[in-house]
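Collaborator request, handled under Task 6.
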Amino acid sequence: MNSNVVLPNSNTRLLLQEMATSNRTNDLLTDPTTSVIRHGTRIHSQSTIDGAHGNFMHNAAFVSLQNSEHNMREIFRKFARDTAYVVGSSWAFFLALVVVIVWAAMGPLFNYSDTWQLVINTGTTIVTFLMVFLIQATQNRDAQAMHLKLDELLRAVTKARTGLVGLEYMTEEEIQELENEFAALQAKYAQRAKERSRKRKTVNGVSTET
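Structure tokens returned to the collaborator:
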């Protein structure tokens, strides 16, 4: 046996055992707290992930709803525009005229009964009811486009009053005041034109007396 190896004595062994026991006791005291802290951290992290996922789903649903609404409006706009164009054509009028003529010709076959009258009444009511919304939507869009064009002209002209841009939102009294103002301007310009006409006739040697 090597004589350089030193074996621990009994006191050293007791000291090592006490240190080992103390370390195990500290581990038992600290491990539950550490476990709770780590468990709470995992719960908080999972809650954060769940909240972010919920916000993402909510935003995705909101964007999808906006896209659906935009697509529906675009489809309705195109349908209203095309329908107004077709209904306003001469072919649509002649087609409606043919339908009325056929309906009137079939009167004797049905003895001009209430059912015969109900057919044309129901058909025209349904068509008129639906066309009201389509035509109104088309007129609203055309009026809006016209207002924007006029607003752009008012903005481009230097001496134009940009306060007239929102004319359609003014009250009846304000519109009446503007109408009276433009009527006075029209009368003023008409008087000037009449005076220039008289001067021109005087220069040409024509008498202006009446």
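The cover message to the collaborator said: "The longest helix spans residues 10-87. The chain is about 80% helix and 0% strand. Please let us know whether this matches your experimental observations."
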